[in-house]
Amino acid sequence: MTLDDFDDDCCLIYGIGNAGRQDDGLGWAFVDWLQAEGLCSNAEMHKNYQLLLEDAELISNKDRVLFIDATKNASVESFTLERAAPKMDFSFTSHAISIPAIMATCQQCFDCLPVVHVLAIRGFEFELEIGLTPAAQRNLANATAYLSSPRS
Amino acid sequence: MSRKLVIDPVTRIEGHGKVTVNLDDDGNIVDARLHVVEFRGFEKFVQGHPFWEAPMLMQRICGICFVSHHLCGAKALDDMIGVGAKSGIGVTRTAEKVRRLGHYAQMLQSHATAYFYLVVPEMMFGMDAAPEQRNLLGLIEADPALMRRVIMLRKWGQEVIKTVFGRRMHGISSVPGGVDKNLSRAECDRLLNGEEGLPSIDEIIDYAQDGLRLFYEFHEKNRSAVDGFANVPALNMSLVDAEGNVDYYHGMLRIVDGDKNVVREFDYHDYLDHFSEAVEEWTYMKFPFLKDLGRDEGSVRVGPLGRMNVTKSLSTPRAQEALERFHAYTGGAANNMTLHTNWARTIEVLHAAELIEELLRDPDLQNEDLVVTPAPGAWVGEGVGVVEAPRGTLLHHYRAGVEGDITFANLIVATTHNNQVLNRTVRSVAEDYLVGRGDITEAMMNAIEVGIRAFDPCLSCATHAFGQMPLIVTVRDPAGKVINERVRSVTGS
């Protein structure tokens, strides 16, 4: 999968995070990078603090979705790019809901399901401060380089 | 040996809370308390910022009711620059209507979240149902058609908010003395008529009645359980217009008793003459009460139930019809049934939808007179704003120095007003469900949460007294031994 796969109006690119919380801004930073580089200009792009249940309706209008979020998972060396599957994981609060639960809601309520990928970029610091740490910036650069590379 | 039951955290409310029920040797309840154990510090760290930043900063208190904080702060700023309600000048009709539109959209969306996402799963599956079923995602599996309508209702509410404030969360519209943008006819028509993926106002008003229908069905089947759950007498408070009807954006503060007699009505700018706030060492949330009545007699209930108890009528036809049924149920007396808060909430969802329709059809929204510029020397430097937020009466009070930097901020949020009634509710439920029973079941634990959740408390909004609250900082060595401890009392010593 490359970014070319998402340069279409049937695609959604959705950065999750908070730029005021250091590396939690990785998801937004990825979207900012796309826009600065003029990449995927035909795709619909969003940046939000967290997913809301209404995002089930949003993704129901798309064929392909790429979510980008920071991860604290120490087993992630730099970033991971994986296909997500719907699952009612009962993670809901009014402030947060998981990507699998959003997909399951889309499937249940709107009778459709886009192909969803999740780009999880390793972050390290999540305190009240603007700006990514150098290590997170390196991981962001790794992810953007990987997705920009043509592959057979 | 006495027992202590601790429910921590209370799920499906905003912020974090802790409930403690203290039992004696015989299993009788000695005490029941809702502890609020987080704090935010907004009143403190806003100090030193330019006064005009306050509505932008304060709305960050909450990701749910940010519009209420934004507008409440804006009203206080109107006062500060000398064009607010206190001055007798007031913002333009256009500005007030734009603000009201955003406010009503917030009311619709926030109530829809609280009711459909947090309360309805309990109604549909029962308090005894397994937690993995008794939640929103269980509801989606059980009734996807209903939830599709709810999602579209919320989406439409968000679109109204986005149209007014520029963003669906933490947008900005209000400035000192008015608003920075009106609404075009095309923007209004889009929201009225809908488009692909966006419902029309007619559909929204239909969806808005889903809540009432669900409540009526649930109530019909569970009347004694609903009516008998945490019946807690209290005074009721709301902003009202000149006719004594609820006004979510502006008005006088009216307080009524159990027979709906008006026990107090005053200009909210004078709140310090009427209210005092008590503190307890076991919670960060304060307890406001009417000074002359004292804490036991003078604590008030705010929010949907309080408002529907105070208001004589509602300004739109469908909501008025629903209110008449609500009022008739208690034969004219105030309704103290905690779970009827959800009934009141559904009435307000409908009222908000109808009010939004009225405004979207109002040509005043296209006017260009958005801001009132204060006359030279009009600067007051102090302001109080009050709105009826979804959860109840919200108050912001700021003072600023001659350079415009904020020197003082006081917030009383709805959940704080409700604190005493919340604690009474916890005790009432605990007495009904926990006394004399051997096992502490999930349903018994959840009954307390249901009581709390009826208020839709926003504990993260309600705890913002950094620098004034009791605070203990303890330093431990790697073995867990305390090597240093600093305690600050409620007086700041």
Structural notes for this entry:
The complex is a heterodimer of chains A (152) and B (493). Chain A has 4 helices and 5 strands. Chain A is an alpha/beta fold and 152 residues long. Chain A has a single domain, classed as HybD-like (Rossmann fold, 3-Layer(aba) Sandwich). A 5-stranded mixed beta sheet of chain A has the order 2-1-3-5-4, with helices on one face. In chain A, helix 1 (26-37) crosses helix 4 (134-148). The longest helix of chain A is centred in the last third of the chain and has 15 residues, at 134-148. Chain A is globular. The termini of chain A are close together. Chain B is α+β, with helices and mostly antiparallel strands and 493 residues long. Chain B has a single domain, classed as Orthogonal Bundle (Cytochrome-c3 Hydrogenase, chain B), CATH 1.10.645. Chain B has 19 helices and 16 strands. Chain B has a 4-stranded mixed beta sheet with strand order 8-7-6-11. In chain B, strand 7 and strand 8 form a beta hairpin. Chain B is globular and about 70 Å long. Chains A and B meet through helix 3 of A and helix 4, helix 5 and helix 6 of B.
Comma- or semicolon-separated keywords:
heterodimer, A: 152 residues, 4 helices, B: 493 residues, alpha+beta, four-stranded mixed β-sheet, three-stranded antiparallel β-sheet, 18% strand, globular
CATH homologous superfamily of chain B?
A: Cytochrome-c3 Hydrogenase, chain B
> Fraction of residues of chain B in helices?
40-55%
Alpha-beta content class of chain B: alpha+beta
Count the strands of chain B? Answer: 16
Question: Domains counted in the coordinates of chain A: how many?
Answer: 1
Strand content of chain B: 15-25%
Count of extended strands of chain A: 5
Structural class of chain A: alpha/beta
User: In CATH's first tier, which class of chain B applies?
Assistant: Mainly Alpha
What is the number of independent domains of chain B? Answer: 1
Give the overall pLDDT of chain A as a whole number. 92
What CATH calls the topology of chain A is Rossmann fold
Helix content of chain A: 25-40%
Poorly predicted parts of chain B = 11-16, 460-493
Please state the second-level CATH architecture of chain A: 3-Layer(aba) Sandwich
Output the radius of gyration of chain A.
15 Å
**Strand percent estimate of chain A:** 15-25%
User: Major beta sheet of chain B, specifics?
Assistant: 4 strands, mixed
Second-tier CATH architecture of chain B = Orthogonal Bundle
Query: Low-confidence parts of chain A, pLDDT < 50 over ≥5 residues?
Result: none
